[in-house]
Amino acid sequence: MKFENLTIFLLAAGEGTRLKPITNFWPKCLMQINKRPLLEYWVQKLKKNNCRNIYINVNYLAEIVEKFIEENNYSKNIKILKEEALFGTAGSIRRHKDSFKRGPLMLIHADNWSNANLLNLYEKHLARPKKCCMTLLAFRCEDITQCGILSINQKDILVEIKEKPLRSNTNLANAAIYIIEDEVLDFIKSNKQINDIAMDVLPNFIERIFVVETNEIHRDIGSFEQLKKAQMDRVEFKLPIVKNEWQKNFERNIIPKIQKYL
């Protein structure tokens, strides 16, 4: 199965405030994972799945992300969507919806580190219960106070979500990877007050969201603790050897500065 009919939207515009001071000069989506930029793993994963309709939004330190895409010859695979401000996850969808073709949209937080099987997620989405108009990837988290915690029924349909609870009888968490059908996209487009997927959209579709749990590694590398742990994680596949000027600059100037905090 291929992804020809699926549009991919990589979210990469955020500031990564918990990783300051490094993110004062370097975007979170390009943090190092085993001496390679995080975003490169996402791009290569999507290429391996024959993804053709790939978009990425940029805002914070956008020129660095754009340079990465251009100098590594990814511009033929990825369309860059520039944003003059941070609009939120749903706000970005609403802003760019007319650029996407009709049909399912896979929304990915590109500043997360994940070995999740995207093809398996798509297959599960295609076989989802008929009443569900969205599929959500879930994982078992280490700290429930840093995640959206999910309650599901026996059919793996979302019945409740609690953002960063202090207590919970489950650690099943929102991995912030979604496959969204047109009904949800139209809902976002027509409700201009909605800006965040987790906070504003998911609660409006309770009992209509199919949840697929991954047993693979999934991390929000938004803290130095999690970024450090990610360096020890199993790498899903080896990236092609690249020694262009961008990679050399990354290794020479960025990695040593990040390593001081790991």
Spatial arrangement of strands, main beta sheet = 5-4-1-6-11-8-12
Report mean pLDDT, rounded to a whole number.
94
User: What sort of overall outline do the alpha carbons produce when their principal axes are compared?
Assistant: globular
Oligomer kind: single chain
**Which regions have little confidence, pLDDT < 50, spanning 5+ residues?**
none
CA radius of gyration is 18 Å
Through-space gap between termini: 39 Å
* Main β-sheet description: 7 strands, mixed
The number of helical segments is 8
Order of helices and strands: EEEHEHEHEEHEEEEHHEEHH
According to DSSP, the number of beta strands is 13
CATH architecture: Alpha-Beta Complex
Would you kindly provide a written description of the structure presented here, covering whatever features stand out?
Helix 3 crosses helix 5 (182-190). The protein has a single domain (7-259), classed as Spore Coat Polysaccharide Biosynthesis Protein SpsA, Chain A (Alpha-Beta Complex). The longest helix has 15 residues, at 245-259. The strands form four sheets. A seven-stranded mixed sheet has the order 5-4-1-6-11-8-12, with helices on both faces. A two-stranded antiparallel sheet has the order 2-3. The chain is globular, with a radius of gyration of 18 Å. The chain is 28% helix and 24% strand. It is of the alpha/beta class and 262 residues long.
